[in-house]
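Table 4 source record.
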Amino acid sequence: MGKTIYKKTGIPWLPEMPSHWEVRRLKYIAKIKNGMDCDKDNGGDIPVYGSGGIFARTKKPMYDKPSVLLGRKGTIDKPQLVTEPFWVVDTAFWTIVNPEISIPAFFYYLCCQIRFRYYSTNTVLPSMTQTDLYQVKLPVPPLAEQRAIARYLDDKTGKIDRFVGLKVRLVSSLKAYRQAIINRKLVGIGDEVKIKYCVTKVGAGVTPTGGAMVYKSSGVIFLRSQNVHNDGLRLGGVAHITEETHHNMKGSKVLKGDVLINLTGASVGRCFVFGSDDEANVNQHVCILRPAQDKILPLFLMFQLQSDKVQNEIAMVEGASREGLSNMALKNYFIYAPPIEEQRKIARYLTDKTGKIDSLIACTETKIRLMKAYKGALILGAVSGKNISL
């Protein structure tokens, strides 16, 4: 077989492609159709899709042939290949692929390369329009090559997906095991007392005037909910504020030994101890609990906040309120307050046990990220006509 000759494409993510391939706008490859509402959960077995995937069932399909679903609003960057009868609601588009130009499986892999965020019309709730999608340029090989590439990618990505699935389940099991260790160690260990009697401060911060526009690349660490996790403070890409802003927000200065807990959103209840001597501050989504050192140790308080005893209460409040967890509710939760020396022993034990589990989780999650990145690179190489032997 001779050496493949490539030509320029004019496609941002694909500088060149095999010379015998064509560039077509999406409007010539597939017809985009709107989703609509339906009678859901009526005893049917037809999957109902939104932009984020299956979320209900119905009796009657909208379409009964293979199709690629594209997000219209919300989750716009996750194309879905559907090969069985389905229904689509109005948060997503569905497509009818032109059989003379492409096949659904290959078209799906092409759509995985579209830079959807570039075309998005709304930053609060990302949205796509048919007009913008129709103008997207894509590489189109001969049908025989499309089928061969699709078979190759189905095989390779299927193996990757199975590997990732196993690792995801492992992470879930490790997290459950971690939680069980904390719960078992913190049962019946003394009298209960409200948090407010064990701390000297309960309070959240604020967003500086000007919001993200005043964030700096260096300066005083400014912690937000995305930085606070149960296994540590993640400071990669952390925001910073100036010394002046920090001084003006002195009520939410963070001290070494403070326990930080998230108050809102999907991360509500995540908490960890701030163990650094560095200057730091928090925004309104993070609450500072400052332990009274003669009553409760920071790590011991942190583990109690992570236990099901407290997390279940947080979940009940979060489920009933759109405002999330309040300082008032938090400081009135009951926790155990055994003698300091017993607290120290328990905290040391849990730090050792959870630290080992957290290391395993981190290692496994790294493998998941690497495999997902490899999958993306594999698809890109294949639909570019490179890195593949058909």
